[in-house]
Here is the input.
Amino acid sequence: MSLETLTEAKMSHHDLLKDQVAIVTGSGRGIGLAIAKKLAGAGATAIITDISQEAADSGAKEISGMNLKSHAFVCNVTDPQSIEKMTEDVISKFGKIDILVNNAGITRDTLIMRMKVEDWNAVIETNLSSVFKVTQSVVKHMSKANYGRIVNIASVIGMHGNFGQANYAAAKAGVIALSKTIAKEYASKGITANAIAPGFIDTAMTQKLKPEIKDKYLEFIPLKRFGQPEDVAEAAYYFCTGGSYVTGQVIVVDGGMFM
Ligand SMILES: NC(=O)c1ccc[n+]([C@@H]2O[C@H](COP(=O)([O-])OP(=O)(O)OC[C@H]3O[C@@H](n4cnc5c(N)ncnc54)[C@H](O)[C@@H]3O)[C@@H](O)[C@H]2O)c1
Here is the structure.
């Protein structure tokens, strides 16, 4: 490849999401931040939203430090008022929303026997009801524009269940079914909705697991490494840049753990 074609290829890659506005929830760090970086790298303005201003600011700062476009807004995904304010703020500043990545999530792991109803509710609210609420708030703007890409971060646990994760597994299974329903209801509006089911990804969420549990997981991962947030970002990037004939699908990013 000549230098000119190489530069051209590089430029077009950087321009694939030029002028697009991409909201990523819970993107102050971890998988959300990696997705936001990837989308910003393709020219989008990454809207970094997180539960606190500090968390959102720190993610947005990293992206602007890379000479890419980003903006921080607070959005607590469990709070309808906070969601509506974020959506309205983004619309009044940027005029549209092309991409929504529902990424914010928590764990409250314990066996069913010991799980308090608060642990159940917190995970269902943060990981599942939030996807409904944020999508409902944002999708009306996508509908008007007859374009949208919605990517929901589910989990392989939502397909297979797991010891100590009744709340999380149920929420993530719900995210998959919700994604398919969004896909059906909004296909006629030029909006696709897909889910990503990551396996074991090395972030704050998994760093708190005991070393012996991590070793156990590694035994079952054919690719013999934990995933990085960037591995998940690749799948999100696919749904947002290509994949225009792909909707209601789940991409598993788990190093082969559950094939
Ligand atoms: N790490 C993994 O192995 C793994 C595997 C499968 C799926 N996931 C999913 O990926 C997503 C991101 O997880 P991560 O591993 O990057 O974890 P993380 O803990 O590093 O990041 C989660 C982010 O969500 C934010 N958040 C939490 N509650 C929020 C709320 N109410 N409102 C707004 N933001 C909130 C946190 O502040 C944090 O920035 C989650 O949905 C998680 O369930 C992670």
About this structure: The chain is about 50% helix and 15% strand. The radius of gyration is 18 Å. Residues 80 and 139 are 15 Å apart (CA to CA).
